[in-house]
């Protein structure tokens, strides 16, 4: 009986407050706010962020906190279901007070883990496309963009995917030294291949742009028409390589060795070495006929008996280089730097 009277009194009091046109006092505003918070909690529209909650997703129970559901992506469906402002009513509950969600638990597990720690980790036996559909359903926009990017990479044709250092080492280990190993036409762009032994390997037509081949052994390799633009080959062994018409524009070949003690010439005829750095390299006897060496740095190079006939050496820095017995017939030496030469150039070398 007392309860009914109190309830009636409260109703009368609230009614009088509604009819009153004067603004409420600070104490009245605080009381109204507290009553509103209690009412929201009673209707199940809002939850304290530290509260633990059970989710029954397709028959599997997931235990997590409200904070996990609302903090990572506050505009998602899960965040709005359990947010403090009660923007969206949660679903019905089962006999264990777990909120029922009619979705696949198989694809939901990577999603709840993403909300927990912010990292997208999907087991190999779980379809990325399936997780993507769940992410779209729950409105997890940031996760959707991550999944779409991963799916695009996974569906990229294998022919266009560059091989990694691990792939190359695996091929080297599994191939007998008696068997010819070919990386002909293979995409190795950007690979870290430093200090590896590539003797006698065929890289013809391979894409090796920006590869790191420093201190690698490329003796007797076939580099014909290989794209090595801006690659790092510092201190590599390039003894007797076949590099006909290879593209080495902007490459770093500082301190490389091209000379074969047996007298077999390295063939770089028609190679593009525009802007490349060959400083202090041993290039004795190298065939650089009609090569493009514009703006190349060839300071202190050993070019004894090298063939540079018809080569374009415009603005090439040859200061301190040894060109004894080199063939420069028909070469373009316009604006080339020829100071501090080890041996003087002779007219018989037919420089123009």
From TrEMBL:
Gene3D superfamilies (UniProt xref): 6.10.140.750, E3 ubiquitin-protein ligase SopA, Potassium Channel Kv1.1, Chain A
Chain spans, region Disordered: 1-32
Domain BTB: 51-155
Biased composition regions of type Polar residues, renumbered to the chain: 9-32
Coiled-coil segments on the chain, per record: none
GO process terms (BP): protein homooligomerization
Domain of life, source organism: Eukaryota
InterPro entries assigned to the protein according to its UniProt record, in alphabetical order: 5peptide_repeat, BTB/POZ_dom, Pentapeptide-BTB/POZ_domain, SKP1/BTB/POZ_sf, T1-type_BTB
One matching Pfam family: BTB_2
Protein name as annotated: BTB domain-containing protein
Organism from which the protein derives: Glossina brevipalpis
Source species taxonomy: Eukaryota, Metazoa, Ecdysozoa, Arthropoda, Hexapoda
């Amino acid at each position: 009986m007392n309860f009914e009277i109190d309830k009636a009194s409260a109703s009368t009091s609230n009614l009088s407050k509604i009819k009153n046109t004067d603004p409420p006092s600070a104490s009245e505003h605080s009381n109204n706010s507290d009553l509103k918070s209690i009412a929201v909690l009673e209707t199940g529209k809002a939850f304290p962020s530290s509260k633990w909650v059970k989710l029954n997703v397709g028959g599997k129970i997931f235990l997590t906190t409200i904070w996990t559901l609302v903090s990572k992506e506050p505009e998602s469906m899960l965040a709005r279901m359990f947010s403090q402002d009660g923007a969206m009513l949660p679903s019905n509950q089962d006999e264990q007070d777990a909120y029922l969600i009619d979705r696949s638990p198989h694809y939901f597990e990577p999603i709840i883990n993403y909300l927990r720690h912010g990292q997208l980790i999907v087991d190999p036996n779980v379809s990325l496309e399936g997780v993507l559909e769940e992410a779209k359903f729950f409105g997890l926009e940031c996760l959707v963009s991550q999944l779409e990017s991963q799916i695009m990479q996974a569906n990229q044709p294998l022919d266009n995917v560059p091989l990694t250092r691990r792939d190359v080492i695996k091929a080297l280990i599994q191939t007998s030294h008696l068997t010819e190993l070919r990386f002909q036409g293979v995409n190795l762009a950007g690979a870290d291949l430093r200090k590896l032994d590539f003797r006698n390997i065929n890289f013809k037509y391979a894409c090796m742009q920006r590869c790191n081949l420093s201190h690698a052994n490329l003796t007797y390799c076939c580099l014909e028409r290989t794209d090595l633009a801006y690659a790092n080959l510092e201190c590599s062994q390039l003894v007797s390589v076949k590099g006909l018409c290879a593209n080495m524009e902007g490459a770093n070949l500082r301190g490389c060795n091209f000379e074969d003690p047996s007298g077999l010439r390295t063939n770089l005829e028609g190679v593009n070495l525009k802007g490349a750095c060959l400083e202090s390299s041993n290039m004795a006897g190298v065939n650089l006929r009609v090569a493009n060496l514009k703006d190349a740095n060839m300071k202190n190079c050993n070019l004894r008996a090298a063939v540079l006939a018809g080569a374009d050496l415009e603005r090439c820095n040859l200061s301190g280089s040894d060109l004894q017995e080199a063939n420069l017939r028909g070469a373009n030496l316009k604006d080339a730097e020829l100071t501090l030469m080890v041996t003087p150039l002779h007219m018989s070398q037919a420089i123009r």
